[in-house]
Specification:
By secondary structure, the chain is mostly helical. The chain contains six helices and no strands. The chain is elongated and about 55 Å long.
């Protein structure tokens, strides 16, 4: 497997872990357990930064575009995934607005946020599954060594914001501290 493809798989695993944490917290909140809205905000921030600003642009540029050049076999699939990326931006904005309404309106807005977030998690998991089951195997077959080398050179300029950068490490730390067990520590943030 090419290094760029392995990086994309690894990023999927990181995103999936955050989605799993979000899904767990949503289930807890739906059962009536108090969940600090701060942890939801931190998770939403992660989901806005990592997939939308780092991960999806790499897929768009280094999988979707080269696949279109190499084969028409991927045209419908790529169009569908591109549409999902665009809709993901809208869904993320809707989710953040729903969170803001919950913050401002209290329990009257809680159920709407929980429903919107649950739908978001389900759709995001389906999106990643489609990429892994159909797109990535097709990319392995259709893309050339030159395509992968170009992607690898550009991937060296990108980074997962949760690996190595101080700001990213701090974001992960905040999620870890704010999330209740078994997802996190459930403690106030230490100074």
């Amino acid at each position: 497997m090419s290094q760029p493809l392995q990086i994309l798989y690894d990023e999927h695993r990181s995103i999936a872990a955050v989605l799993d944490a979000l899904a767990h917290l949503l289930r807890e909140a739906a059962r009536g357990k108090a969940v600090d809205p701060k942890v939801f905000r931190q998770i939403l921030y992660y989901l806005d930064v990592v997939p939308e600003r780092y991960h999806h642009p790499k897929e768009d540029e280094f999988l979707f575009a080269p696949l279109r050049r190499r084969t028409h076999e991927a045209d419908d699939l790529v169009a569908r995934l591109e549409h999902q990326h665009r809709m993901g931006l809208e869904s993320m904005a809707h989710l953040e607005q729903s969170m803001a309404r919950w913050d401002a309106g209290g329990d009257a807005e809680r159920a709407a946020f929980l429903a919107a977030a649950t739908t978001f998690v389900d759709r995001y998991r389906q999106h990643m599954q489609l990429e892994e089951d159909e797109l990535m195997p097709l990319a392995q077959r259709a893309l050339t060594a030159e395509d992968w080398a170009a992607a690898e050179a550009q991937f060296a300029l990108h980074h997962d914001p949760l690996k190595g950068a101080e700001e990213s490490a701090e974001l992960f730390r905040r999620i870890l501290y704010l999330a209740p067990p078994p997802i996190g520590l459930g403690d106030p943030l230490p100074d």
